[in-house]
Design brief:
Distance between the termini: 113 Å
Largest sheet: 4 strands, antiparallel
Helix content: 25-40%
Radius of gyration: 35 Å
Strand order of the largest sheet: 1-2-3-4
Structural class: alpha+beta
Number of helices: 5
Shape: elongated
Length: 196
């Protein structure tokens, strides 16, 4: 009986040892998966030009809106001209700032404009520019009529100006009339009230 038990124990040990050598331990391998990624790159050609920001990609039409907003290609060129206009003011390129104005808007002399540009205005930062009709469309208001050769834009600008002898920063919303003059867009007026 003792030999039978010893025989069974020896067999169990042999089977156990053989079984572990028969099934090899699985190897753990590290796998790297390469996934293709598509990137959209926007190239800004001019160094100091800010890209305008449109608030919504697909605007929702409000029930009381009259008319459809059409994003005309002229808006982009007029927006770029307006951003340059404020950039000239910020960089103190006073002659270019004067030249960016329409003949109607050049009421002050070049010398007065240079004094204003260099001494009265500090930093200028354009936060946003978009078509005035786009704002009206989003608000559900009736779209305005832009005369031939005019583009109406809304711009939100942070400006430093001298007030009571010291520079004070303030935010201004300009309603801007851009006019096509001498084969380029120029600033015709910068009202702070709606143009329509």
């Amino acid at each position: 009986m003792k030999t039978k038990i010893i025989f069974l124990v020896v067999m169990a040990i042999l089977l156990t040892s053989c079984q572990s050598t028969m099934t090899p331990t699985p190897e753990i391998k590290e796998v790297t998966r390469i996934v293709e990624q598509t990137s959209i790159v926007t190239k800004i050609v001019e160094e100091t030009v800010l890209a305008p920001e449109i608030v919504e990609d697909t605007p929702t039409k409000h029930p009381n809106s009259t008319g459809e907003f059409e994003l005309k290609p002229e808006y982009f060129d007029a927006t770029l001209a307006l951003v340059k206009y404020f950039n000239y003011l910020d960089t103190k390129d006073c002659v270019a700032y004067y030249d960016a104005q329409s003949m109607h808007n050049q009421r002050a002399s070049l010398e007065d404009t240079i004094t204003y540009c260099e001494k009265i205005i500090g930093n200028v930062e354009v936060v946003s520019v978009y078509p005035l009709n786009y704002q009206y469309y989003l608000e559900g208001r009736r779209l305005g009529n832009e005369p031939e050769g005019h583009i109406y834009l809304t711009s939100f600008v942070l400006m430093e100006e001298i007030a009571l002898g010291e520079m004070v920063e303030r935010s201004i919303i300009f309603e801007v009339d851009m006019i096509w003059e001498n084969e380029e867009w120029k600033v015709n007026s910068t009202n702070t009230s709606p143009l329509f």
